[in-house]
Design goal:
Chain lengths: ~280, ~290
């Protein structure tokens, strides 16, 4: 394609500026997280890293006092991992199965059940938080991983991803499988699941990030510090920044922020291709 | 649906059961509860309640704080959607033109998807911290008298800025994929026909991207409605005086912090109606795209 020199120059300038716009806030947070709190308090945010990386991150990771709670960042990272993985695995399995029933079977309740599943898209958890909280409390599931994960899975986004994908699978495959005498369960396990591997991976990655980043629901239903995810942890640290009349713990708040972002960002960057495939092909 | 399907009595029920079970317990039950509660007047401790028909809805719809929140939500959603779509489209077009280094730019611009909204909120509000925030100082050194703690417009500016920052990467991914899906032959023909990149963009590229743009508009509106909860809760908390509280944030504040169950439930139901309209719209659009 023909491009003038000027166009090439502006292209790169604009893209560099765009990248800086995205990266600078995080870079400043990282650089500021590696100084002492006195230094940040006197000199403001920093563009260059200081020498306190190991001190600050070490304290946050292993010392519960540094995070103002009774839980260390390491434990919070573990909780986030449980939420991210549990949510992604649960969602993928349940959605695949439901979508299979919807696409490949003719059965009596198919239409009403489809509409029940569809209706979950109309009412996100954010709108029904108060009654959801009451239901989970009634079931005695507050402050449990089950209560954390299951209500989040109760929305059908994944089902629609798989429904769309299955519908693009050629009919001939099923005809051939039936000629070979494969039953519905054999067809699902031996043919459909292997065929969906990249799709499963893509949706798994997206759901892991979505699960890791959950905020409102964990905020409400985990009152016990031991179950805090790291995203909730940063709010708690931030809220207590000015407590006790001491110099605010800005560097440690930043350190926690960085730690909350690194795992999902790594997943997205490493599995870029799959992630983009899942995001673009399924949602469209 | 498929032309060929299994006909089997028990198997489909077996496959669909886990999803239906979870939906029944954690979706249908609370949803019904929300609907029921929206017709009840409860005292602050939830000890007694009274069936009051539509009074909660009347109270909500006539209250100035809900109306203000609704107006803010609409303005906020439109601004966030339009700004983040415009910025990402601009970046995506440039990234698509770049041949060398395209992959690095793509990585640099897309990772933001993985940042949690409250994390973005925290990063943003730190930049505007009056004690040490560089942006706060910069704005004031230019003579803006910027004060997001007291001035509603300044606070809204911060929330919008953070929400746009967080959303640019998602839109960028969709636009870049859309652009790269345009056949090379079409692009080459376009280059031969008109030399000006701007004209080429508006007459050829943009119409081809219109469905993506429309789809993203719906996605972005939904994002601004719901997912910005974390941004607001960490940055402004709706301050000053509820001026930056979106409708979702208000449901939370009234229901959990204000213990006004009936009012909060009525707000939920109203929100549900709004989302339904948006979702049906989106779903019909997606369906149409799939057939074509």
């Amino acid at each position: 394609m023909y491009q003038s020199k000027w166009r090439i120059f502006t292209n790169h300038t604009i893209l560099v500026l765009g990248s800086l716009f995205m990266i600078l806030p995080v870079w400043i947070a990282f650089a500021s997280s590696t100084h002492t709190r006195e230094y940040i308090f006197q000199n403001g945010l920093q563009f260059l890293p200081g020498g306190e990386f190991f001190t600050n991150y070490g304290a946050i990771l292993f010392d519960a006092d540094a995070t103002k709670g009774r839980v260390t960042a390491l434990e919070m990272l573990f909780n986030s991992m449980v939420l991210g993985l549990g949510f992604a695995i649960g969602k993928v399995i349940i959605s695949m199965m439901a979508a299979y029933a919807i696409v490949y079977f003719r059965f009596k309740l198919a239409v009403p059940l489809f509409w029940i599943i569809f209706s979950t898209l109309l009412l996100p958890l954010e709108v029904r938080i108060v009654p959801s909280y009451e239901v989970v409390a009634n079931l005695g599931l507050l402050n449990t991983y089950t209560g954390l994960i299951l209500p989040l899975i109760a929305s059908a986004t994944g089902t629609f991803f798989f429904r769309q994908f299955y519908r693009s699978v050629p009919d001939e495959l099923l005809e051939a499988a039936r000629l070979d005498g494969a039953g519905p369960i054999r067809f699902f396990i031996d043919i459909l699941v292997p065929l969906s591997v990249t799709m499963i991976a893509a949706i798994f990655i997206i759901m892991f990030v979505v699960g890791w980043n959950q905020y409102l629901w964990p905020l409400l239903m985990t009152t016990d510090d031991q179950l805090y995810t790291i995203v909730i942890g940063i709010k708690q640290v931030y809220n207590s920044l000015y407590e006790g009349g001491q110099i605010p713990q800005f560097p440690k708040a930043f350190a926690l922020t960085i730690m909350a972002s690194v795992p999902p960002v790594l997943v997205v960057v490493i599995f870029q291709r799959m992630f983009v495939k899942g995001l673009v092909e399924t949602e469209k | 649906m498929k032309r060929v399907q299994f006909e089997h009595s028990a198997v489909p029920y077996l496959f669909i059961a886990p999803q239906i079970l979870i939906i029944s317990i954690f979706f249908l039950w609370p949803a019904a509860q929300a609907l029921y509660q929206s017709f009840l007047l409860e005292d602050a401790f939830g000890m007694s309640s009274q069936f009051v028909w539509f009074r909660n809805f009347e109270d909500v719809l006539t209250s100035s704080s809900w109306t203000r929140s609704a107006i803010f939500t609409v303005l906020f959603s439109v601004l966030v959607s339009v700004l983040s779509i415009a910025i990402s489209l601009f970046l995506a077009v440039r990234a698509d033109e770049v041949i060398r280094g395209a992959k690095s730019y793509k990585t640099l611009l897309m990772w933001g998807y993985a940042i949690a909204p409250p994390v973005a909120g925290l990063l943003g509000i730190m930049m505007f911290n009056p004690l040490m925030g560089d942006l706060y100082k910069a704005f004031n050194s230019f003579g803006f008298e910027f004060n997001h703690i007291e001035n509603a417009n300044d606070a809204a500016f911060i929330v919008i800025l953070i929400a746009v920052w967080k959303q640019v990467s998602v839109n960028f991914i969709f636009f870049l994929s859309g652009l790269q899906g345009i056949p090379k032959s079409v692009q080459e023909a376009a280059t031969l026909d008109c030399k000006s990149p701007e004209r080429r963009f508006w007459t050829i590229t943009f119409p081809l991207l219109a469905p993506t743009t429309f789809f993203l508009l719906v996605i972005n509106l939904t994002y601004a409605f719901f997912e910005t909860f974390g941004i607001i809760d960490v940055s402004t908390k709706g301050a000053p005086g509820g001026s930056t509280a979106t409708l979702v944030y208000k449901v939370y504040v009234d229901g959990f912090l204000g213990a006004d169950m009936g009012g909060s439930a009525a707000q939920s139901v109203l929100l549900m109606i709004m989302v339904s309209v948006l979702t049906v719209f989106q779903f019909r659009f997606i369906e149409r795209k799939v057939h074509y």
